[in-house]
Amino acid sequence: MRPRVHGLCHAVAVRKALIVICSLALVAAVVAGLRQARTSTGASGDAPAPLARAEVSKPIAGAPPELAALRSRVSELSGGGTQAFDVQLRALRGYPVVVNMWASWCGPCRRELPLFQREALARGRTVAFLGVDVTDDRGDALELLERIPMPYPSFADPRSNIATGRFKARVFPTTAFFDAQGRRTILKQGEFASRAQLAEAIDRYALGGT
Fold first, then answer.
1. Do residues 20 and 77 both lie within one domain?
2. Are 139 and 114 in a shared domain?
3. Which of 35, 96, 138, 150 is the most buried (most CB within 10 A)?
4. Which residue has the higher pLDDT, 11 or 164?
């Protein structure tokens, strides 16, 4: 009986070893998948560093007056609510407009803002950018705009009359795209994972108008 018992014990030991090996392999696969997911969504910590105020404040040579005026309002947080926002939007008729809705309490918004910094600088002669600061503490919002200065003004929206009342935004950040005729082409809810993704959306929905 002893050889049979010995063989049985050996088989049990091998089975336990295989279970341990499979478990370790599964854990490694899950960890790798999570790392890949964080990278693909832009949440891996490799977002571009914010540009300094001096970089975003440079005048745009050859820009139309309406777009040059936006650059002169770096990190401005305007009041006036929906009415003031609508006046500004109408004043930009004839140019594609990108409206980014953000808040200082919103982690994805903070990650995304440096992407909008760079795209607004690159497209300052052709595309208008506006911000909407949603249900935020004004002091916190201004502090964020000091750390991540934006080359265009934002409109304070303390009761979300613009973001949820006008645009029906459900998550933040949310970005609205308008073509040069003032028609809203799409409302993108959620974070842009990369500058390339944001640039593609501007080309398609603001410049292309589709």
1. no
2. yes
3. 150
4. 164
Output the six-digit token pair for 49: 């560093």
Are 124 and 178 found together in one domain? yes
User: Do 14 and 70 belong to one domain?
Assistant: no
Whole-angstrom distance, CA of residue 156 vs CA of residue 82: 9
Backbone angles phi, psi at 136, to 5 degrees: -115, 155
Judge if 26 and 74 occupy the same domain. Answer: no
| Prediction pTM value | 0.79
Collapsed DSSP state (helix, strand, coil) of residue 159:
coil
Number of domains in the chain: 2
For 102-131, b/e burial (b = at least 16 CB within 10 A) is bbbebebbbbbbbbbbbbbbebbeebbbbb
3-state secondary structure of 71: helix
Tokens of 197: 């993704």
Full residue range of the structural domain in which residue 164 is found: 53-207
At 192 the three-state DSSP class reads coil
**What are the beta bridge partners of residue 100?**
131, 175
pLDDT tens, residue by residue, 173-198: 999 999 999 999 999 999 999 999 99
Strand partners, 17: none
